[in-house]
């Protein structure tokens, strides 16, 4: 694969002028070296978060693979190592000795089988943070079972609560287990372990289970059962599309508006914006009348376009917003004002890293994603290997390097 080599150099220091001096800010995770073993979706997201906030993330890919499946590769470098060779395993161990974090997304037992388990690696580098990201965690009878987001969400209990009235459970893309409960939760674990290491000087093992991560993200659902928030069947409660004032409505141009007018003061504004007469409507909290109210709102919203409703509700504090498509998002005034979306060098648009840190904000890399093995030589040199060592490993097929042709 040929493409132009783009600089992966980010401005590691953000400069901010103040009246007396120029202050240099270092990104929060600058200086942290991460070895990420290539995975499907959750671990790549975790690696991208660390990279966005300044860590040097090296993705370890397999050899003899043409295309990376990692769509979350922003800012990473790729080294291709054959871990089915003794030399490849020895090489990875050497990389881990000089790193702060290793992130592995394989089925339980895979790393141990390779001789790369936490026992071995922490012995060689006691400061290493060994992050494991799996569906079911490192123990329990499902620990070695294959699975995907929908399975983890199902076992967390959350999936049973997701879906509309009378319909089967519905998984909202693969966001909750893979990304919220998986990649994001694992990145939190890594940052916590890095923070703790500043005091103890010691690394530790992080066991991220996407089932538990998703369940934890769902703590509100669990712990608000005691106030009766989820007493009705799926899709018939306040926040699961049961209530007419917490739902989406189609507009006359086939787009949608999102309504979140829960509190009475916002609900009053919703009724005002819809030009309805509150006196002629059932009470907001009369659950039995919710289907009737939903019908009334449906008819009202269908009478104007999304742009018309947006104009009305942008001026009213009613918690009503347009449901923006990906095409509309970055040109929305609010998102534009905050520069919430970025474009990389190939023109691909994506969300900018969140949250925004006031002194040490993320500086996401805008170069295009690495091809497999693009940085093998560069990284191995950085870790102290000589050109002769590298040539020998290349010749033996222990590592591969894909040269990226510079644009002529
Ligand atoms: C719903 C999501 C998943 C969404 C993913 C999609 C984004 C992608 C899914 C399919 C992709 C498309 C497809 O591949 C076809 C095209 C390919 C093309 O190249 C690109 C375009 C494609 C259209 C492509 C596009 C996209 O990428 C897709 C649409 C999820 O839920 S993700 C969460 C999954 N679960 C976990 O991560 C939990 C923990 N992991 C696991 O449970 C298992 O790893 C898993 C995921 C079940 C896979 O099990 P598997 O048996 O395959 O592997 P493991 O048991 O873990 O063992 C790994 C073996 O690999 C060896 N190994 C590792 N590194 C190396 C190396 N460097 N060298 C040599 N060998 C290596 C390791 O030793 C293991 O070997 P053994 O089996 O012998 O022990």
Give a nutshell description of this structure:
This is Alpha-methylacyl-CoA racemase. This protein has helices spanning 42-52, 86-97, 110-113, 118-124, 149-156, 175-200, 210-217, 219-223, 264-273, 290-301, 306-314, 326-329, 333-338, 376-382, 387-395; strands at residues 13-17, 22-26, 33-37, 56-61, 77-81, 101-104, 129-134, 204-209, 246-250, 256-260, 320-322, 341-343, 349-351, 399-400.
Distance between the ends: 16 Å
SSE succession: EEEHEEHEHHEHHEHHEEHHHEHHEEHHE
| Computed Rg | 25 Å
The gross shape turns out to be elongated
Number of helical segments with 4 or more residues: 15
Largest sheet, strands/sense/barrel: 7 strands, mixed
Q: What's the total number of strands?
A: 14
The percentage helix is 25-40%
Transmembrane segments: 21-41
Biased composition (Basic and acidic residues): 337-351
Keywords: Isomerase, Membrane, Transmembrane, Transmembrane helix
GO molecular function, one term: alpha-methylacyl-CoA racemase activity
Please provide a written account of the structure.
With 408 residues, this protein is an alpha/beta fold. Helix content is 34%, strand content 15%. The chain is built from 15 helices and 14 strands. Strands 8-7-6-3-4-5-14 form a 7-stranded mixed beta sheet, sandwiched between helices. Strand 1 and strand 2 form a beta hairpin. Helix 1 packs across helix 6, helix 5 packs across helix 7 and helix 6 packs across helix 7. The longest helix has 26 residues. The two termini are 16 Å apart. The N terminus is likely disordered. It binds ligand LNO2BQTQ. Ligand LNO2BQTQ binds next to helix 3.
């Amino acid at each position: 694969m040929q493409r132009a080599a783009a600089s992966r150099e980010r401005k590691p220091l953000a400069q901010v002028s103040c009246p007396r001096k120029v202050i240099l800010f270092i990104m929060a995770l600058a200086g942290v070296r991460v070895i990420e073993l290539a995975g499907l979706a959750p671990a790549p997201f975790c690696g991208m978060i660390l990279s966005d906030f300044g860590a040097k993330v090296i993705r370890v890919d397999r050899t003899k693979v043409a295309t990376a499946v990692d769509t979350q590769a922003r800012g990473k470098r790729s080294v291709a190592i054959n871990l089915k060779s003794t030399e490849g395993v020895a090489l990875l161990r050497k990389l881990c000795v000089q790193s702060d974090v290793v992130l592995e997304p394989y089925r339980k037992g895979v790393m141990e089988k390779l001789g790369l388990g936490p026992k071995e690696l922490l012995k060689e580098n006691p400061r290493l943070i060994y992050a494991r990201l799996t569906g079911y965690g490192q123990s329990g009878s499902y620990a070695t079972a294959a699975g995907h987001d929908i399975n983890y969400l199902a076992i967390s209990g959350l999936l049973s609560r997701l879906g509309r009235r009378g319909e089967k459970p519905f998984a909202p893309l693969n966001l909750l287990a893979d990304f919220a409960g998986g990649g994001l939760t694992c990145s939190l674990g890594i940052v916590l372990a890095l923070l703790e290491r500043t005091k103890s000087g010691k690394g530790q093992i992080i066991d991220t289970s996407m089932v538990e991560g998703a369940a934890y993200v769902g703590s509100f659902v669990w712990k608000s059962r005691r106030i009766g928030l989820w007493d009705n069947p799926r899709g018939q409660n306040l926040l699961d599309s049961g209530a007419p004032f917490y739902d989406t409505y189609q507009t006359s141009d086939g787009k949608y508006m999102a309504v979140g007018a829960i509190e009475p003061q916002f609900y009053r504004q919703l009724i005002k914006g819809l030009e309805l007469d509150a006196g002629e409507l059932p009470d907001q909290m009369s659950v039995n009348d919710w289907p009737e109210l939903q019908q009334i709102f449906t008819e009202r919203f269908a009478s104007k376009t999304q742009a018309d409703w947006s104009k009305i509700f942008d001026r009213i504090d009613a918690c009503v917003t347009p449901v923006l498509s990906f095409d509309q998002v970055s040109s929305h005034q609010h998102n534009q004002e905050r520069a919430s979306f970025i474009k990389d060098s190939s023109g691909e648009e994506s969300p900018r890293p969140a949250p925004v840190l006031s002194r040490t904000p993320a500086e996401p890399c805008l170069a295009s994603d690495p091809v497999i093995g693009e940085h093998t030589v560069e990284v191995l040199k950085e870790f102290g290997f000589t050109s002769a060592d590298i040539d020998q490993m290349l010749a033996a097929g222990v590592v591969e390097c894909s040269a990226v042709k510079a644009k002529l």
